[in-house]
Design brief:
This protein is 69% helix and 0% strand. The protein is mostly helical. Mean pLDDT is 86; it is low at 223-233.
Length: 233
């Protein structure tokens, strides 16, 4: 056990059992001050993981190629814990992205690597017409979420995702108390509480509409290019 990890964990306020609260247990400024007690490389790694699994999803701004490069770099160089958490989040993110694309365009993207990063790539494409992409045995909730996406019930999708991620992190937390993994989990759970504290129906619609627009813009641009080529031939 590193003394630095122990010091950081002990300095962090206890996390609430549930994320549906009005404010985070610690401000962002104070959280970052605490994390600066970490070794420099671990401080950087913590926020790199946060950026990949949370910020890039719920506040999308990075290109998929940039995300893929950062994702692959951590997969190749970091611990099993970091690899597993990245794979879990990107699998979930990719399935939700595929649901939204299917709901809007009906057809699978010609270049899926531009839209998602997941080990389920072949499953998504091969079972594109199935409500659960043939993944119901792994994600039994998929048919319900697919129906909510089809109905454009963005609030239901948003609340499900937050609950599902929170439960995953809560389970993952068991066995990690005063180590770097515990700090990563705390940081990600902090983001869920922060997001929920600002959560309302209008915000949900805004965030998910922005995400849908981002996902679809490439597909629409690709279709325009194909149409232009067809008209010139």
């Amino acid at each position: 056990m590193s003394v630095q990890y122990y010091t950081v964990v002990c300095s962090l306020p206890r996390m609430n059992r549930y994320f549906q609260i009005q404010e985070t247990p610690i401000s962002r400024l104070q959280l970052e001050k605490r994390l600066k007690l970490l070794p420099t490389d671990k401080f950087t790694l913590a926020f790199t993981v946060e950026s990949l699994v949370w910020t890039s999803w719920f506040s999308p701004h990075q290109s998929m190629s940039d995300l893929r490069g950062a994702f692959q770099n951590l997969i190749d160089t970091e611990s099993v814990f970091i690899r597993d958490i990245l794979i879990w989040f990107f699998d979930l993110r990719s399935i939700i992205a595929a649901l939204r694309i299917r709901n809007e365009t009906k057809e699978p993207p010609e270049n899926p690597q531009e839209y998602w990063i997941t080990r389920w790539n072949h499953k998504l494409l091969r079972n594109w017409g199935d409500p659960d992409f043939g993944l119901k045995s792994i994600y039994p909730w998929l048919p319900k979420v697919a129906a909510d996406v089809a109905k454009k019930d963005t609030v239901a999708v948003e609340e499900f995702l937050l609950s599902y991620i929170w439960k995953y992190l809560s389970i993952l937390e068991m066995g990690h108390y005063f180590d770097f993994e515990a700090i990563i989990i705390y940081l990600l759970r902090w983001n869920i509480i922060h997001y929920w504290s600002q959560f309302n129906k209008d915000n949900a619609l805004t965030y998910l509409n922005e995400l849908s627009t981002l996902l679809l813009s490439k597909q629409l641009s690709h279709d325009v290019i194909l149409n232009d080529k067809g008209s010139m031939s």
